[in-house]
Amino acid sequence: MDKVMEMKHITKIFPGTIANDDVTFELLKGETHVLLGENGAGKTTLMNILYGLYQPEKGDIFLNGQVSKINNPNDAIKLGIGMVHQHFMLIDKFTVTENIILGIEPKIGLKIDMKKAINDVKELAEKYAFNIEPTAKIEDISVGQQQKVEILKALYRGADILILDEPTAVLTPQEIDELGTIIDNLKKEGKSFILITHKLKEVMKMSDRVTIIRRGKVTGTVYTKETSIDELAELMVGRKVNLTVNKSEAKIGKDMLVVENLQVKNHRGILAVKGVNLTVRAGEIVGIAGVDGNGQTELVEALTGLIKPQNGKVMLDGKDIFNKTPREISDSGVGHVPEDRQKRGLILDFSLFENSILGLYHKLPFSKGIIMKYNEIRKHSQRLISEFDVRTPSDEVTAGSLSGGNQQKLIVAREISKNPNILIAAQPTRGLDVGAIEYIHKRIVEERDKGKAVLLVSLELDEILSLSDRIAVMYDGNVVDILERKDADERKLGILMAGGTVKNGKEVRDGE
Amino acid sequence: MVSNSETKSNKFLLAAKYVVRSLAFPLFAIFISFFVAVFFVMWSKGYGITQYFTALTDLIGIIITGSFGSTDQTLQTMNYVTPLIFTGIASAVSFKCGIFNIGVEGQFTLGILAAAVVGQIHGLSPIVHIPLIILSGTVAGGLWGSIPGFLKAKLGINEVINCIMLNYIAMYVVNFVIMRTPAGIHGKGQTPIIQDSAKLMKLNGVSFGIIIALICAVVVFWLLWKTTKGYEIRAVGINPHASEYGGINISKNIIFAMVLSGAIAGLGGAVHLSGTVYMTTDLLSFIGYGMDGIAVALLAKSNPIGCIPSALLFGTLESSSRILQINNIPKEVVYLIQSVVIVFVATDYIVDYFKEKKRKKGAVVNG
Questions:
Q1: Which residue of chain A comes nearest to B236, CA vs CA?
Q2: Topology classification of domain A3-237
Q3: Size of interface A-B (CB pairs under 8 A)
Q4: What's the CATH architecture for A243-333+420-512?
Q5: How high is the ipTM of this complex?
């Protein structure tokens, strides 16, 4: 097969770091080539160079055998390169067609030739078997459909090489399968794909070849057929990684958190949690699965007092914590690892020791009356840092200077040090590298084994499946079903997450 | 593990680095402002370009002899510096909590008014009267500060607009009291001189006010960095979302910071009245200490201890303006220096802002 694209000896230096160090990467016609690496490994940088957003310090890009200079994204588009970003670049109020033609509208005089545009889009969609309505507004279609619009947008501009940045992050398992089919169809038409991802499972399922980048350097290019998840993880992290979470049988205790008919409005005043019933018992991990934006955020914020719930009942160990302040809830034994660690979890300009007592500073031994006991605080923070392996020069640096993984370790350490009855962890490993994920998972399971109740909210199905003892699925503000871990699999959860129903863990009733 | 002595020297290095870094920009700003101001001195005195250093020594010489040349002049200068320390600290407290108390002017003015009225009470012993006059100003300023604080915390109304309006109201309240009530002398357009029992004592001619100002700076510093309340105020100022998560009541802290800020400004007003001016005239425009206090706090980077040298600089410039005039240098040079300092300090904040932005962008790039 021909090489459609080759990047040779690319070096890109940012102040203080070498993002790409002599990277060579090639793409064959009609193949899916995955660029695999941890956060910060330099894969997005490499693709931004290909797309003309950055200029490399050294190295050349060859397209169809010819040296090409790509100064900006317009050059890239002209050369047949299309990019679908992780966060879609679509205008909500516009229709599918309007979004696709944006910037290269077919015109009659000064007027946009909308008829031709709609026809073009329809033709294109039919050609590649995209099931999409050209006149639908973006705000009315699902995330999976929006991604198709992004892909169509690139195809409409004549792309032969498509770069997809973390394409599966926002999709349900069914939508991921659908994306796989689309990619296969397009490959038959001679298009080539580069996928940027750090999810190993999808790499195995969707790709032909994998190039692994670690700390800016290529550590290997392998054929997917000839490799395994464990080998890929090792190439990615640089050491053996334990991908499966080892945990023993849950020793279930009494009901710790009981939520009855909880209703919560979101910040725009719309009911986002519509009567949730949920029980979390001591010694178990309950996972909440669901596509982003189905009420998980509001549920957690209402449980922790960050937004006022409308209605319902919340009991913690027999004590009413409905509609209490965050202070009261935290003091009655709720540890909370928040979803957005930089907005909620840490005060980035505060030092680590000041951050280590957020939510604890008003209690002994950290303060007496209004006087802060800095000796005790420093001891506490140093204990957290060594116990949870937070990599930092000292506890005096600001939290903002730590990497994401270490920031998260500090938060988890602080919340666990509160010795809570229940630990609520929302997206505890989002954006972290494999090493940090492994560590945080281990600590969460440890809490369960100590007899604590754990409520885990995650968008990553793998995380839910590997940690949870029971799994509640949220869809459109409701818990649509609660499955025992042994009855749950990816397919069932996917159907539930998309609003379908499954008959009590046995057979699928509809939604297929 | 690092050895103990190593950590200690490391700590010292870090602290030294921190001090140098935080002082570098204000000092640089002052240096540049003088550099620019000298050109205006040359222009007004008709010096040639080669006489740059003559003009520089002229300017600095006049400012220093004009402000500290004699005991009298030094005392005079201290009278300018003292209220600026108070208003500087008052502004700094609000900045630390993430609110912009531009109403320090009004709170200071009401502190003056309260003191001017309370100071007229007959027949009190100084032991009672002096604490009373100080307290009256503090309470008046605190109450005045609580209004925008309360409106911001409970109703979300922007404090800047309310503060500006309250500054004008404070000014007209003073005029009303002087013109329409027995507490003022209508004919003279001023309040009567306060009783001797209400006048702040002097130590070797230095008003006790400066000592109160220094104590105030230390107490506020202690409050902000050594107490739970200070932890809360600073946390709310940097990141209200995380503060809320950490169980800190944002509304309470905003109101508290505004009351504290207003109280310090009012205290400054009372000290100024009972220690220096003894009465107030009717006001055609703002007294000005409150507005300058913002500049003092900016230059001090909202550090209450830093407000002391910062106020010293601004007070010295202020007090030397008349002497400059006599020496054929327009007194506007003083305002010029002040403005350039502020522009540069503001630039520092802008630099920080872009650094932050770049850091965030960098993070995305490596995502």
A1: A347
A2: Rossmann fold (3.40.50)
A3: 90
A4: 3-Layer(aba) Sandwich (3.40)
A5: 0.82
